[in-house]
Design brief:
By secondary structure, this protein is an all-alpha fold. Helix content is 84%, strand content 0%. It has one domain.
């Protein structure tokens, strides 16, 4: 039940990261750098959180 909203949360965070990356790229003239970097950071942090939470749950079950 904890992971029910994870997909929607991931989509919203990715959309915000894309939008923010495009806006920052326009402001700092860094063409595709931040548009690619920010969503990758969001994915890495999200997967890290999921792995950490599932490993905690696995340890509780044992």
């Amino acid at each position: 039940m904890n992971y029910l909203g994870l997909g929607m949360q991931l989509l919203v965070l990715l959309a915000l990261a894309l939008w923010g990356g495009m806006e920052l790229d326009k402001r700092f003239n860094m063409s595709p750098f931040l548009t690619l970097t920010l969503p990758l950071l969001v994915l890495i942090m999200t997967f890290y959180r999921v792995i950490r939470e599932t490993s905690k749950r696995k340890n509780k079950d044992e």
